[in-house]
Amino acid sequence: MGYAELIEKLQALPQEKQAEVFDFVDFLAGRFGTAHGAPLARTDWSDAQFAEFAMRQALRGMEDEPVSYTRDDLTELWQ
Q1: Range of 20's domain?
Q2: Which tens digits make up the pLDDT trace of 58-75?
Q3: pLDDT at 12
């Protein structure tokens, strides 16, 4: 796949998916990539760092979703 085809496919995605692709590319560049032609030092992520990154990605956009449940929907209460 060439750059032109990649850009074309990226532009066809919805805006939130484009942002997700950007974040993933940024993640890969941070681990293995280069910045302005200069190699970056490879950084091994700890399990905690990767888990935090994964959770941010999984929850992206959820802050805009309305809450559709109430306390009455709970089957068990913490005491």
Answers
A1: 1-31
A2: 888 887 788 888 888 888
A3: 93
Nearest to 21 by CA among 63, 47, 50, 57: 57
For the cut 70, the answer to whether the pLDDT of residue 39 exceeds it is: no
Predicted model pTM: 0.43
CA 21-30-58 angle, 5° bins = 45
Count up the domains in the chain and report the number: 1
Domain for residue 63, yes or no?
Answer: no
For residue 24, tell me if it sits in a domain. yes
Please state the φ and ψ torsions of residue 67, each to the nearest 5 degrees.
Answer: -75, 125
Residues in the chain: 79
CB 13 within 8 A of CB 21: yes
| Residue 42 located in a structural domain | no
